[in-house]
Amino acid sequence: MSFEHKLDQVLMRFNELREQLSATMEDPAEFAKLSKEYSDLTPIAEKIMEWQQCVDEEKNLKELVSDPEFKELAQDDLQRLHEQVPLLLKEIQVLLLPKDVDDDRNAIIEIRAGTGGEEAALFAADLLRMYQRYSELQGWRFELLHESDTGIGGIKEASASISGKGVFAKLKFESGVHRVQRVPETEAGGRIHTSAATVAVLPEAEEVDIHIEEKDLRIDVFRSSGPGGQSVNTTDSAVRITHIPTGVVVQQQDEKSQHKNKAKALKILRARLYEHQRAQKDAERSASRKSQIGSGDRSERIRTYNFPQGRVTDHRINLTLYKLDRILEGAGLDEMIQALITEDQAARLADFGE
After folding, report:
1. 3-state class of 131 per DSSP?
2. How far, in Å, CA of 167 to CA of 164, rounded?
């Protein structure tokens, strides 16, 4: 099928949907389904119509340019269209790329201090704050699910639920090992230490996505404890859930209610099991892919935050930004994420065109 024919089919389906939706429909479920398809197709259809209009205009201007009387008048407009038409075509190709089915989902983010002791725990806390601020700037809802702190500003591990428009589409590229290079406040000699934290971004799964059998769970309840092992409440409200078939273990103790801790633990368990399924499918798909920006591999070193030089380097796309403070404040993170999205689109377009 030629590319032009594919574009014609998109417009044909778009017009069909518009006619169907303008007719009286008795089935609310069918109306909702067609409305979503129409909404998804609208930006592509509008871009195709804009491109077709520019192509027709370009053809007409080429005829005018051959007429000495109109040549000068038409030349500037023709030059503008020469530049505009390929850009519109590229935008259409990007819009036609197969979408990640999970892009519109909310996400659960898990951050763990890695090598580097207390310095790694402090860096993990920096990353948690960065994602919280970034979420606020994006207009997303950020809910802390669990935090195990060190008592002196750092965190051993934390998890949060982030909900809003296109959360997973943007944050999925953050999974991996984040490395920090800086001089710790306790370092008298001024030597730079390197430490790391691991970030995992999981698409949030609903019960319909992952069905968990009660018989597959072992649920243990115990008394919550804070930093240093001291008891933080006197009831057995903390919950540990083990998914027996996979061995995945989730623990929650931040809430005083056992019921709330269990609900949060199941939410994280569901996301981890869904991510496991997703990773298996990605591995099968990526076997034929040349490149994969967002592999989601937690052991892959993806980024270095160098404090002495004030720079952040993403190793997957060799991008360095000298905006460390702005990135850690959340305001500068979008530039890095948008660059990753653009690079991923370029890689997928290369594969798509073959």
Report:
1. helix
2. 6
Residues 60-95 pLDDT 10s: 887 777 766 666 777 777 888 888 888 888 888 878
Q: How far apart are CA 142 and CA 164, in angstroms?
A: 9
Is the CB of residue 201 less than 8 Å from the CB of residue 271? no
String of DSSP letters for 178-232: EEEEE--TT-TT---EEEEEEEEEEE---TTTS---GGGEEEEEE--B-GGG-BS
**DSSP letters spanning 57-75:** HHHHHHHHHTSTTTHHHHH
- 319 and 198 in contact (C-beta within 8 Å)? no
Max CA separation in the chain (angstroms): 92
CB neighbourhood size of 257 (10 A): 11
Q: What angle do CA 203, 205, 210 make, to 5 degrees?
A: 130
Residue of 87, 130, 122, 80 lying closest to 323 (CA atoms): 130
Number of H helices, E strands in the chain: 8, 11
| Contact status, residue 205 vs residue 271, Cβ threshold 8 Å | yes
Count CB neighbours of 5 within 10 A: 9
Tell me which H or E stretch contains 306: strand 301-306
pTM comes to 0.71
Mean pLDDT for 92-119 is 86
